[in-house]
Amino acid sequence: MSNSLIKISDIKRDFILGNETIYVLKGIDLQINKGEYVALMGPSGSGKSTLMNILGCLDTPTSGTYILNGKDVSQMHDDDLAEVRNKEIGFVFQTFNLLPRTTALDNVALPMIYAGYPKSERNKRATEVLTQVGLDDRMDHQPNQLSGGQRQRVAVARALVNKPSIILADEPTGNLDSKTSVEIMKLFGDIHASGNTVILVTHEEDIAKYAHRIIRLRDGIIESDQLNEGHL
Asked: Could you tell me the sign of the dihedral formed by the alpha carbons of 209, 44, 36, 114, in that order?
């Protein structure tokens, strides 16, 4: 059985603005195997956010193929993509994206509602992942009763709850101070060590250092793809 989790071939993404076509991704080939810890880097306008949206099944490419866990998702329709996203991908965003008047437990259980699990199972699994991220004593707190770091831990727990194939983190420390950033990156290290595939999108070199492989984009192509021997 192949160890490949993500295989994209000649992915292009164009956007039409008025009479102009903007070529954002210009033919990307990339393979990511199960259990890798990858950082996706690049300056503003390099195409890394567009690539992340395609990897996360939030967007479809203009051309090229994307095989995710054995399924061709490159030309799927929105409903099918939503199902793949909910099952295969756990998202962590810079802005946490938590529901404000909802407890940590209910925020974490949310993806399981979409996946159709009964309440008892949702609460059991949400309790498990909140304990895993060190928040077992904060389950009934709402986001405004938590620090930034604790809110990001809730977001990480929510990303883990459906046991996805990939954790996709977009600038996950962008709103955190440096001490809290180190704690959150240590948490991603633990998650990776327990067998998850982690893809991190960042423009910060000191955050990318935690990944085992660093892929740099520039002007819509992959400029370099290297193993990071000195990862933290």
From this structure: positive
